[in-house]
Design goal:
Blueprint lengths: L7 E11 L10 E8 L2 E6 L13 E5 L8 E4 L6 E7 L2 E6 L4 E5 L6 E6 L7 E4 L4 E4 L4 E5 L6 E6 L1 E2 L2 E2 L3 E7 L2 E6 L4 E5 L6 E6 L1 H9 L9 E7 L4 E6 L5 E8 L8 H6 L7 H12 L1
Parallel strand pairs: 1-19
Antiparallel strand pairs: 1-22, 2-3, 3-4, 4-5, 6-7, 7-8, 8-9, 10-11, 11-12, 12-13, 14-15, 16-17, 17-18, 18-19, 20-21, 21-22
Length: 285
């Protein structure tokens, strides 16, 4: 029998704040930053959390430090733009509540194609440079053929016998899939090979600080991961957050009490807000 190490929990080691009080064309920096040398692309959408605002999701290209808009690709009003990833010089994007996806030219963001996938609908999308990985808000991680868009495999993600539901935003980082778990402030680290949980990133303090400053409400959860592969940087944000964070993580050194991960990170097993805040503070103490 091959022994697999127990999943490890990580916490923020260093944090750099970017774009304080970001307000960008009336919309909010959302779930994906796609980096290339000196540039990035990202998906902008208020409508992911606030469809009553009647604002169109848009795909924009900008400069990381200057935040100047150079190209905009607007989507139809009935579509909610979700996961976005770059593979073989093409941008792939899925849409919430639909099986339809879109393909864009990364140079000018023009739409160059569409596709239909096997997931229930579109939440997250990532790539290892060979295949696409997708999520649909369930506990399933999909591997998708980028040519046919058929599911190559689908792995149900478990942690200690519990399904990890609400897998949302995805990012491929150093051979792992990192996924936001709605509505928690946790990121689960998943093996792309078999769907096993490799560990957790606990980021409860970010939303807590923004709430205490009166910048967001309780339902504006962590959701958004980006990986700058060239400079090895990790960025995170959340639903309607006015800030973007660059973080570095390190293992939690002291033992974690049994059941804390379930209470903090597993939808349906999480505790009332006050208890979750206290558990997060206890881990940071």
């Amino acid at each position: 029998m091959i022994h697999k190490p127990s999943p490890r929990a990580f916490f923020i080691m260093e944090m750099t704040l970017y774009l304080s009080q970001l307000v960008f064309m009336g919309s909010h920096l959302s779930v994906k930053l796609l980096f290339k040398p000196g540039r990035y692309k990202y998906n902008v959408s208020f409508t992911e959390m606030m469809p009553s605002l009647n604002m169109k999701p848009t795909l924009n290209e900008g400069n990381l430090h200057g935040w100047e808009v150079e190209n905009i690709q607007k989507m139809d009003n009935f579509l909610f733009g979700e996961g976005l990833t770059l593979l073989n010089n093409r941008l792939f994007q899925v849409t919430w509540l639909h099986k339809d996806g879109f393909i864009y030219d990364p140079n000018n963001l023009s739409e160059i194609g569409t596709f239909n996938h096997d997931m229930k609908d579109g939440w997250g999308l990532a790539t290892d440079g060979k295949v696409l990985f997708g999520s649909d808000g369930s506990s399933t991680l999909y591997q998708i053929d980028p040519q046919t868009f058929k599911a190559i495999s689908n792995q149900v993600v478990y942690y200690k016998g519990h399904q990890v539901y609400n897998l949302n935003e995805l990012e491929y980082i150093n051979g792992e899939i990192w996924a936001n778990v709605l509505p928690t402030d946790c990121i689960v680290r998943i093996s792309p090979n078999d769907g096993s949980v490799l560990g957790w990133i606990l980021l409860q303090n970010l939303r807590e600080e923004l709430m205490e400053a009166g910048m967001i409400s309780d339902n504006n959860v962590l959701n958004g991961i980006a990986w700058d592969g060239e400079q090895k940087r990790i960025f995170v944000t959340g639903k309607l957050w006015p800030k973007l964070y660059e973080i570095k993580v390190s293992p939690i050194k002291k033992p974690i009490e049994e059941g804390i991960i379930e209470q903090l990170c597993l939808h349906g097993l999480t505790q009332p807000k006050e208890k979750v805040v206290n558990l997060g503070r206890k881990l940071r103490a």
